[in-house]
Amino acid sequence: MKPDDTEELLAFRREQSGKKNIESKSNPFCEEMCEEMQITEEDVRRLDSNDSFVLKSKKEYFRVLIKAKKLMYDEAIPKNVKQHYMKFVNQAIQKIKRGWGLVDINNAMVRKSYLGLKKFVKYKKKAPTTTERGSFDENSPLLAVDAEAHKKLVNIYKNKREYQIFEKELYQENRGYYHMIPKKDRAAAKKIGEEMLNEELAKYGLKLEELFAEPDSNFQNATYCCNIDNENNDWNLQVILDKNQLNGEDEGQYCPLGVVALHELGHIKQTMPGISKAEFETKIGVELAPTIDLIVRQDEIYKRIHGIDMAQMVNYPQNLVLDGREVSLGAFANRFRQIKERYGYDSYEDVLLTKEAQSYICLLEKNMGMTNRAMRGGRSFAER
After folding, report:
1. Where in the chain are the domains?
2. Are 180 and 298 in contact (CB under 8 A)?
3. Percentage helix, strand, coil, to 5, in the chain?
C-alpha cells in the first residue's frame, strides 16, 4: 500500500523527516471516521507503519467499519446478526485505539470475517451461507478451516522437489485408489461413504441436500471450481458432483460418491478467502492432503465391510507407483492413519506438517519402495 492512502485519511501531508510539516486540510471523510469509530486522528496516524493490509486500501477498510456501525441502528436487521458482525467491528476498532494497527488480514479466519462483513454492508443483512447450491462463500463454516495449515504446508512444499513429485505421481499418475473397493461391495460402500460425509457435515451444521450443484450435460466428473464472476460479482467457490457417476465401476471397482465429496470439501477447507481465480488455478500442493484422505477412507470402508481390523494391512489389486517403485496402498493408508491418530489431528493438512509424515514421503521418493511381495502377512484383497 502507498503512503498516500493514510495521508488522504488524515487530510494532511508530511514532508520527509526533518522538513516542516504541511498544515492539515479539511476532510469530511476523516471527520466522519473519527466520530463514528470514536477514535482520534492520532490513532489513524499510527497506522502508517502497518504493512500487513493487503486489500484495496485503508480507506476502503474504514468505510466498511463505518457503514457497519451505522447499520447497527437499523431495526430491520435481527439482533443476532448485528451481534455476529459487531464482534469483528469492535475488535478492529479496539486494535486501532490501542495502537496495535489493523487486523491481520493475512490470517485466514480474520480475512473471512472481514469479507463477510463487506457482504453484510453491501446487502444490509446477513448474506446466505451459499449464494446458490454448490457455492461456498465467506459465510460458509467450511471455508478456510484448514487454510493456515495449508499455507504452512505450501511454504515447505514449494522448496522440496520430492513433495512436488510425490503429489504429481499420487494424484495424476495413479488411480489405484479407485480399485480398492470391488463393485460387488457397492451398496455397503455407498452407505458407509454417505455416513462419513454426513458425520463431517454435521460438525458444521450442514446438510447434504444443500451442498452440491448438479452437473450440466457436458460435465461427467466431480470437480472443484472457483467462481468470482457470478451475477452479483461476489467471491465464492463451487463444488459440482455428478451423482450418477460411478467412479471406477467401468473397471469393476467402486469409489463412493461420499468419499469423492469429502475430497472436494477438503479443497474448500484449505482455500484462503478471497483468493483470485488466477492464484487458485496455479496453486501447488492442493491435491496432497485431500487425496491422502480419500485413500485412508477407502481403506477404512473396505475393512469395515469385511470385518478387518484397522491396524491390519490389506493387499489391494493395484499399488501406488512412485518413481517407478510400487508402494502398497494398504501400507500407505495404515501409515497415514496411524500418524493422524498419534497426533490427534482432524486434518491431513496438519498431519503433513509433522516431521514423521514428511520423513515418510521422503522415504517413498528417495529410498526403497514397499511392494506387496515384501509386505508379508497382509490380508489379500481376494480373501473374504
Report:
1. 4-127, 147-380
2. yes
3. 50, 5, 40
